[in-house]
């Protein structure tokens, strides 16, 4: 939606949503065929994906959230939040120009900060420069107060 609102042309090549109802909603809201849904990210073979310039991802937040169990997103832990590492492997294989990750601000808490730092380090090893900030949806025309961290990474020239 941000690209569309900014008037930046883009072509969606795929999306990944395991919940069939969320997939159907996404398809209808954005006028894209559900066949573009790759489904379970753990089943994706990154090398088989089409090339793309940008990837937007937001791993499930439950394991990072103060409302969740606080299990975190440690690589290989099998938590829902650890699915972010599957996207890192896609980035490693495809090297898009930009990566945007969204999640709950609690990612920056003392407990979860090591995972976030590791995420940034992995991207840096691949040549990405990253910056992040916490933004609230209410400041951008959304009728709810919903803080999220946004991390934008750019593949250095």
From TrEMBL:
The UniProt record lists the EC number as: 2.1.1.37
Q: Name one GO biological process term.
A: methylation
Q: Which reaction does it catalyse?
A: a 2'-deoxycytidine in DNA + S-adenosyl-L-methionine = a 5-methyl-2'-deoxycytidine in DNA + S-adenosyl-L-homocysteine + H(+)
Q: What class of enzyme is it?
A: transferase
Molecular-function GO term, any one = DNA (cytosine-5-)-methyltransferase activity
The cross-references to Pfam families, in alphabetical order and at most eight, read: DNA_methylase
Say yes or no: keyword Methyltransferase present. Answer: yes
Which keywords does this chain's UniProt record carry? Answer: Methyltransferase, Restriction system, S-adenosyl-L-methionine, Transferase
- Which residues does the entry assign to the active site, renumbered to this chain? 61
InterPro entries of this UniProt entry? Answer: C5-MTase (IPR050750), C5_DNA_meth_AS (IPR018117), C5_MeTfrase (IPR001525), SAM-dependent_MTases_sf (IPR029063)
Family statement drawn from the similarity comment of this UniProt entry = Belongs to the class I-like SAM-binding methyltransferase superfamily. C5-methyltransferase family.
Query: What NCBIfam families does the entry give?
Result: dcm
Q: What's the protein called, per UniProt? A: Cytosine-specific methyltransferase
Print the organism lineage: Bacteria, Bacillati, Bacillota, Negativicutes, Selenomonadales
